[in-house]
Specification:
Length: 215
């Protein structure tokens, strides 16, 4: 993905007014930096090209898997900035295959689950900002996860685990992370496997929806 299409407003009606279109913007580079650059350029609505396919058969090639992970990380980072993202997603055929992603901006189109329209309605209804996030403290990382309907909290103070998070936040080959650390993250459903790649689900908090003490 080299470019995205962007507008200065969330609402389609406002985005269609003169001067609201930003046209095609460059979107290469690390997802964290790309999302910040798009936000700073005034983008509040972004359309990603193509469709993101999470089926294992579609990501056997390492290059394809890396591109899929980069797209997912960009959606995650744009969600963290409260940018409205237009994107398309195809998951594995399991009914709940979309649920680990329900902290991300819901896609425009969803396929894969047995009843994709119902799944997408639920995703849109239950989505809100700060649903699954992490933040850096002095010597530790705190993770707060509400994707499953209850608040799960994790504190990571081990340096090797913190380094793994920083690596996985951009997406990385599974072989680049110690197996024991990956097993821990997988058991807590904090990472996703895409072919030979692994990516970090939570986004770093960028915009609180309410006062921090209430989160």
């Amino acid at each position: 993905m080299d470019t995205v299409t962007a507008w200065r407003d969330f609402e389609p009606e406002a985005a269609g007014l003169p001067g609201m279109s930003l046209g095609e913007l460059e979107a290469s580079g690390p997802p964290t930096r790309t999302a910040a650059r798009l936000w700073q350029s005034g983008a509040r609505r972004v359309r990603l090209p193509g469709s993101t396919d999470l089926r294992p058969a579609a990501n056997e090639d390492p290059g394809t898997a890396a591109r899929t992970v980069r797209t997912l990380c960009l959606v995650r980072e744009l969600t963290a900035h409260a940018v409205y993202v237009e994107w398309e997603l195809r998951t594995a055929p399991e009914a709940d295959a979309w649920r680990p992603l329900n902290h991300l901006q819901p896609p425009q189109f969803l396929s894969g689950p047995p009843d994709p329209e119902s799944a997408l309605r639920t995703w849109r209804k239950e989505h809100y900002l700060c649903k699954c996030l992490w933040r850096q403290g002095p010597g530790f990382i705190q993770i707060r996860d509400r994707r499953w309907g209850e608040l799960l909290r994790f504190t990571v103070d081990e340096p090797d685990y913190q380094e793994a998070i920083r690596l996985l936040a951009q997406g990385a080959p599974a072989s680049a992370v110690p197996a024991a650390i990956l097993d821990t993250f997988r058991s807590e459903r904090l990472v996703g496997d895409v072919g030979p790649m692994v990516w970090w689900f939570p986004y770093r908090v960028r915009r609180w929806i309410q006062e921090a003490m209430a989160i």
